[in-house]
Structures are given as C-alpha cells and as structure tokens.
Write a structure and sequence with these properties.
The protein is α+β, with helices and mostly antiparallel strands. Helices cover 28% and strands 26% of the residues. The strands form two sheets. A four-stranded mixed beta sheet has the order 5-3-4-6, with helices on both faces. A two-stranded antiparallel ribbon has the order 1-2.
Length: 137
Amino acid sequence: MSTLRIGGFAAAHNRPVLTIGVAPFDERTRPGTRKHVYVIELDRAVMAIGKFRKANPDARPDRLCVYVGASSLPPEKRFRQHKEGKKANRYAKKFGVRLVQRLMKNRQGLESWKKAEDSERRCAEKLRKRGYAVWSN
C-alpha cells in the first residue's frame, strides 16, 4: 500500500520535505503486465432479469448468455473473484457458470488497457450480433 508522509526539514534549506513510500508491485500494477479479455457463461436464468433481457432483445435461445470483461489478472483468477464477490459484476457473481475458452481466443496478453477495453467492446458486439445474450461494462 502506498503511504504519503509530509514532514521533516531539509537540513541545508530549512524547507519541508515530501517523502513517498511506494509498496512493491503486485500482479495488476507491475510494469509490463498483460491484460486479458475473458468470457463467462451465465446461467440462462439471467434472462429473467428485466435489465439483462432489455439489453439483449435479439438474443437467440440456442446461444449462451455471457459476461465479457477485461482484467490484468489471469481469466481463471478473475472468474474466482467474481464468484467470491470481490469487485464482482452482479450477473457474473450470481449466474456465472464457467469460462468459455473458445470465445476468448486471440484476446489474451494485450499490452495496454486501451487495447483490452477496445477488444472487450468488440468481443461483446461480435457475440451480440451472433445472437448471444451479452453483458459487458
């Protein structure tokens, strides 16, 4: 955790000194950390939620309901966080079944948040056009 301490005086200048202590990097903030887009299958019962159903008027009954997200964590770890309620999307927490690997291909190891967010948006749009019921931030 970062700490900020303002205090003390520079001996030669008799001015306040600003010192900042920075915690070690974790897997989300370490420079060079790759971003991942992931797809979680949702139980079909999510279609009973009016807000979800309204966002997916063209969803086909033979297609999955999914949540699409992006994270700097590996998809498996992020899925566990959703299920445990840590920074969780409400649909992924309550209705999440499993990761759908075949829908996540070519969306791993992205270099920046901008690329990950763009990829997340494109993935959600593509799946929605194919008849999936999709929720994405």
